[in-house]
Specification:
Layout (H helix, E strand, L loop, with lengths): L11 H9 L2 H13 L8 H14 L2 E6 L3 E7 L2 E11 L26 H16 L6 E9 L12 H7 L10 E12 L3 E3 L3 E3 L1 E10 L14 H16 L9 E10 L9 E10 L2 H22 L2 E10 L2 E2 L2 H15 L4 E3 L10 H6 L2 E9 L20 H16 L5
Parallel strand pairs: 3-4, 3-5, 5-14, 6-13
Antiparallel strand pairs: 1-2, 2-4, 6-14, 7-12, 8-10, 8-11, 9-10
Bound molecules: zinc ion (2 copies).
Length: 409
C-alpha cells in the first residue's frame, strides 16, 4: 500500500497533458456555442450539436429529455461506480455589446451566463476521458441540461425535469459534479463552498386589489398603489426583526405593474419579487411574517393583499464528505494555491435538484482576466476569459477520475 491513498489514477499526468492538448478544441467549441445561443426551452440546435459530438466520441446518447436535454454515457472497460457531470445549455434574452469575432449571431440572444463555457468544458471532458476508456471502470455520465435560466415550465423542465426523467438512475449515480464560471474570480483559480453553496429561492407574486375612483375623490375608492408602496416599506423594515440576523435572507421586488390612467385610482397592482434564503427554516419564518404583515396592511388600507408563491429552487448544498474529497483532488491536481474556500452566494441554481438526490459537488471557475474589474453575469458586456477553459477541463477530469475510477467512499 502506498503511504498516502491515491485519489486520482497514477496516469493522471498523462491525462492532464492530453487536456492541455485540447485547448484549441475547447476554444472552438466555446465560440461555436457563443455564436449560436438559444433561449431556455428552445435549445434545439445546441442539443443537436452536443448529441452529434458525443455520438462521434462513441458515447451512448439519449436526446429529448425534459425538453432538449441530452445524456451521454461513457462506459468504462470494467464495472464500477457511476459519476455524473452536468452542464447547462441555455442563453439569455440580451443583445451582446461586444464586438468580437465570435459575437452572437442570434440577435437579442446571448450566452451571458457562461453556459457556452460549461458546454465546452463538458464536451472537452467527454473527448478527453473517452480516450482513456480502456483504463476506466464504471460509467461517466454527462448530463446536458436545458432551461437552467427558467422560469421552469412545470416540474418536467430544467434540472427537476431531468431528475424526474430518471437521468440519475439505472444505475444510480454515486456522485454528481458541476461548475459555474465566476466573473469575480481570476483565471487560474477555482473556489468552492464546503456545504451550502447557493440560496434557495422562491418567486413571489403579490396582488394588491383596490377600488377604482376618480383621482379627485380618492376617499371614494381604495388606492392599491398607495397600499403597495406601504407594503414595500413596511416589509423592508419589519422583516429585519423577524429572523436571527446571523441567518441570511433577502427579499427583493423586481417588477411592479398596475393602473390605467394618471387621474384614476388603479384597480390593482401586481408586484413580483424573490425571496432567497440559506436555510429552510428561514423561508418558513419570513413567509409567515410576510403573511401576518399583509393581513395587518389589508385592515389598515382597505385593499386586498394576496400572496402567491411559485417556482421554488431548493438550497444548493454540497455533500460534505464528497466536497472534502473533491477539494483534495482539486488541490492535488491543480495546485493548492489555485483552490480557495468561499462563502455561500445568494443567487440560485437548479443544479440543487440533482444535489437533493445524490451526493453532489458544485464549484466555481474563475474567468476574470487578472488586473481587470471583470463583468457581471447576465450583463450584455459579459466577456469571460477563455484562458480559463483548460483549467476547467482539468478540474472536471480530475474530479470524474478521482471519484469514479477509484471510488470515493
Ligand atoms: Zn444565469
Ligand atoms: Zn448560469
Amino acid at each position: 500500500m502506498p503511504e498516502r491513498e491515491m485519489i486520482v489514477p497514477p496516469w493522471w499526468p498523462e491525462a492532464a497533458q492530453a487536456a492541455e492538448g485540447l485547448t484549441e478544441e475547447l476554444t472552438r467549441l466555446r465560440r461555436h456555442f457563443h455564436q449560436h445561443p438559444e433561449l431556455s426551452h428552445q435549445e434545439r440546435r445546441t442539443a443537436a450539436a452536443v448529441a452529434a459530438y458525443l455520438t462521434k466520441l462513441g458515447l451512448e446518447v439519449k436526446t429529448g429529455i425534459a425538453g432538449h436535454g441530452v445524456v451521454g454515457r461513457l462506459m468504462g472497460a470494467t464495472p464500477g461506480r457511476t459519476v455524473a457531470w452536468r452542464a447547462d445549455m441555455d442563453a439569455l434574452p440580451l443583445t451582446e455589446e461586444l464586438e468580437v469575432p465570435w459575437r452572437s449571431k442570434n440577435a437579442g440572444v446571448m450566452h451571458a451566463c457562461g453556459h457556452d463555457f460549461h458546454l465546452a468544458i463538458a464536451l472537452g471532458a467527454a473527448a478527453l476521458l473517452s480516450r482513456f476508456r480502456d483504463r476506466l471502470s464504471g460509467e461517466i455520465r454527462f448530463l446536458f441540461q436545458p432551461a437552467e435560466e427558467g422560469p421552469p415550465q412545470g416540474p418536467d423542465s430544467g434540472a427537476l425535469g431531468m431528475v424526474r426523467a430518471g437521468v440519475l438512475d439505472n444505475p444510480r449515480v454515486d456522485a454528481i459534479f458541476g461548475l459555474h464560471v465566476a466573473p469575480t474570480l481570476d483565471v487560474g483559480q477555482v473556489r468552492y463552498c464546503p456545504e451550502v453553496v447557493m440560496a434557495g429561492s422562491e418567486h413571489l407574486i403579490l396582488t394588491v386589489t383596490g377600488q377604482v375612483a376618480h383621482g379627485a375623490t380618492p376617499h371614494k375608492g381604495v388606492d392599491p398603489i398607495l397600499a403597495a408602496a406601504q407594503t414595500l416599506v413596511l416589509l423592508k423594515s419589519a422583516l429585519a426583526q423577524e429572523v436571527d440576523s446571523r441567518q441570511p435572507f433577502v427579499l427583493t421586488f423586481g417588477r411592479i405593474a398596475g393602473g390605467n390612467r394618471f387621474n384614476i385610482l388603479a384597480d390593482r397592482v401586481v408586484l413580483e419579487g424573490s425571496l432567497r434564503f440559506l436555510s429552510p427554516g428561514v423561508r418558513e419564518r419570513v413567509l409567515a411574517a410576510v403573511r401576518r404583515h399583509l393581513a395587518g396592511l389589508a385592515k389598515a388600507t382597505g385593499a386586498r393583499l394576496e400572496l402567491a408563491t411559485q417556482g421554488i429552487y431548493p438550497i444548493l448544498k454540497n455533500d460534505a464528505r464528497l466536497a472534502e474529497r473533491a477539494v483534495r483532488i482539486l488541490k492535488e491536481c491543480l495546485g493548492a494555491r489555485r483552490v480557495t474556500a468561499h462563502q455561500p452566494a445568494m443567487g440560485s441554481e437548479d443544479f440543487a435538484y440533482f444535489a437533493q438526490e445524490v451526493p453532489a459537488f458544485y464549484f466555481f471557475l474563475g474567468v476574470r482576466t487578472p488586473g481587470t474589474r471583470g463583468q457581471a453575469l447576465h450583463a450584455p458586456d459579459f466577456n469571460p476569459d477563455e484562458a480559463a477553459l483548460p483549467l476547467g477541463l482539468k478540474a472536471a477530469a480530475a474530479l470524474l477520475l478521482g471519484t469514479g475510477a477509484i471510488g470515493f467512499r
